[in-house]
Amino acid sequence: MAIPVFDFSKLDGDSKAKAEALAEIANGCEEWGFFQLVNHGIPVELLERVKKVCSESYKEREQDFKRSEPVRLLNRLIDGNDGVSAEDLKKCDWEDGFILQDDNEWPSSPLNFKETMKEYRTELKKLAEKVMEAMDTNLGLQKGYIKKSFSNDDNDVPFFGTKVSHYPPCPRPDLVSGLRAHTDAGGVILLFQDDEVGGLQILKDGRWIDVQPVKDAIVINIGDQVEVLSNGRYKSVWHRVLSLKDGNRRSIASFYNPSYKATIAPAPELSLGAGEYPAFVFGDYMSVYVKQKFMPKEPRFQAVKAL
């Protein structure tokens, strides 16, 4: 079983091609919660630069990772030190990463990192908004509905962050995860994953299946807020990253999320009445999510309803 891969350029084709593209995206959202886009419009030359600067950035951080808490705990457990158990490692992720936002400090090295990632984020944001417009159409919503909801009816700017991660080789992948299983809190997630080293998996029909590496593809997945806006028609999906003995997985995930002040609720056109998802402020949801990220999502919706 493989994650579906769609030719996004068909969305700009004739009426037949556009209809096919919309149907494929609808299927990806409804049946999978994860899908991959090729021919998405982001220049291959830019993607190659992104790979280069992000890999070089990790090389500069590699020694710091070797002194990190997960590495320290695993080494102590392997050495048989008292006070460290396998349960301690189940609360860790074998991951090195940092977040890029418009208003935080970015690494000044390697050369051209800032310029490259700024250009990349601009392209990713455009792609995210185009994907959301396709979702609007498929859900029978007015064009721009999801974006407007995320921007608090145009009163705020949606959150757009990029997490640059690496999952280094792990000597005992049986003891620690690359990234523990979770659903994403936000809206639409766009992942530029390693095209050689695998490890990303989603839970579908009770089975963990691989998100196969596809060169220069962008992986799209649904976050909790799109699940709410669609009133459950599109669902966020559990996913995880395995730690591996070989390889050094690169992962660049961008998150197009609501403003922290935005109120999220099922779209009126999709509302069914009693028993559906509650309305809540996204910032309140995040205050619950940070404590319950690796737990089932349904109690989070109930917890935020009570606020």
Biggest sheet strand line-up: 1-2-9-6-11-4-3
Residue fraction in strands: 15-25%
Average pLDDT score: 95
Order of helices and strands: EHEHHHEHHEEEEEEHEEEEHH
Radius of gyration: 20 Å
> The biggest beta sheet, please?
7 strands, mixed
Identify the overall geometry: globular
GO molecular function: 1-aminocyclopropane-1-carboxylate oxidase activity; L-ascorbic acid binding; metal ion binding
Protein name: 1-aminocyclopropane-1-carboxylate oxidase
Catalytic activity: 1-aminocyclopropane-1-carboxylate + L-ascorbate + O2 = ethene + L-dehydroascorbate + hydrogen cyanide + CO2 + 2 H2O
Family: Belongs to the iron/ascorbate-dependent oxidoreductase family.
Keywords:
seven-stranded mixed β-sheet, 37% helix, 9 helices, 307 residues, four-stranded antiparallel β-sheet, alpha+beta
Task: Give your account of this protein's structure.
Helices cover 37% and strands 20% of the residues. The longest helix has 27 residues, at 113-139. The N and C termini lie far apart (41 Å). It is an alpha+beta fold and 307 residues long. Helix 1 packs across helix 5 (113-139), helix 2 packs across helix 5 (113-139) and helix 8 crosses helix 9. Residues 158-258 form the Fe2OG dioxygenase domain. Pathway: Alkene biosynthesis; ethylene biosynthesis via S-adenosyl-L-methionine; ethylene from S-adenosyl-L-methionine: step 2/2.
